[in-house]
Amino acid sequence: MEHIEFKDLPDILRAGDLLVFNDTKVFPARLIGRKADTSSQVEVLLLRSLIPNLWRAMVRPGRRIRVGTKLLFGDGELVGDVVERYEDGTRLIDFKYKGDFQAVLNKLGEIPLPPYIKSPLEDEDRYQTIYATHRGSAAAPTAGLHFTEELLTKIEEKGIDRAFLTLHVGMGTFRPVRTEDITEHRISAEYYEVGNEVAFKVNSTRSRGGRVIAVGTTTTRVLENLADEKGYIVPESGMTDLFIRPGYRFEVIDVLITNFHLPKSTLFILVCAFAGYDLARIAYEEAIKRRYRFYSFGDAMIIL
């Protein structure tokens, strides 16, 4: 176990390695509005668009937002009708508005920061990776927040390649595991896209014996979701609800870069599956002892 600064990452990587990033971009998915009948405040977190105007969303307070409820946002520029309730408590909302939906969201929505971040950010781009490209995520893939343009340049100069896939992070990823048996926990499906270039680079790296390094747990889940028994992947888009837990056999990734995660989270369980429970526990104890910062804007670890 070693303690280094993130800027020293190129020193522990090797020429021929491949870094794989999640280039999703967080959008203003948090809406604060009111119920049309009582004017009581409601909060809606948009998770995924099923068809135009129809969104799956988390709502608060959940018990008061029943099917048939009409929700108003702003001065009525955006109206939502709750048309279905799913088993996991999320709702299907049919939105009505004038003009472009993204423009309406930009005006009325907020970037959905994690609940442990109490103050609004002066610069909302602080919660975006520098390579964020494809808009559609309700949360940032936070392992990527450590990378700067300067660091990426140093990595490239050392002969380390990089590739980008997309997974739009939903809040289901961060829901705590409440079941006594973790095999009974379910992750809400999230949309991913893997293009020809990243598939080619991953497969080429594996063929020549290089290491595939996943930047974050979201990247890990996409790559492992697509893996065949030899660890090769194909370009594809779709939905994944892969829950990686101890006992899982990793087929694609060789190295994981990740932040320190909340207890009882599927993210921490994935780390335990990759590092082994005993090593993960020791690493977390060491991080606490040395007063490392946890969660979205916290420190990171690399598991080799």
Q: Could you describe the 3D structure shown?
A:
By secondary structure, the protein is of the alpha+beta class. The protein has helices spanning 9-12, 101-108, 149-157, 196-207, 217-226, 266-275, 277-289, and strands at 18-22, 24-26, 30-35, 41-51, 54-60, 70-73, 78-85, 91-97, 134-137, 161-167, 190-194, 212-215, 236-240, 255-259, 300-303. It folds into 2 domains: 6-26 and 121-303, QueA-like (3-Layer(aba) Sandwich), CATH 3.40.1780; 30-108, Thrombin, subunit H (Beta Barrel). It has a 7-stranded mixed beta sheet with strand order 13-11-10-1-12-14-15, covered by helices on one side. The radius of gyration is 20 Å and the shape is globular. 33% of the residues are buried.
Report how far apart the termini are. Answer: 10 Å
| Whole-number total of structural domains | 2
CATH class of the largest domain: Alpha Beta
Number of strands: 15
Strand fraction: 25-35%
Number of helices: 7
CATH architecture annotation of the largest domain: 3-Layer(aba) Sandwich
| Principal-axis shape | globular
**Structural class by secondary-structure content:** alpha+beta
The whole-number mean of residue pLDDT values reads 93
Provide the low-confidence segments as ranges: none
The major beta sheet can be summarized as: 7 strands, mixed
Strand order of the largest sheet: 13-11-10-1-12-14-15
Global Rg: 20 Å
- From the 3D structure, determine the CATH topology of the largest domain: QueA-like
> Can you identify the CATH superfamily of the largest domain?
QueA-like
Share of helix among residues? 10-25%
Q: Which assembly state applies to the chains in this document? A: single chain
Order of helices and strands: HEEEEEEEEHEHEEHEHEEHHE
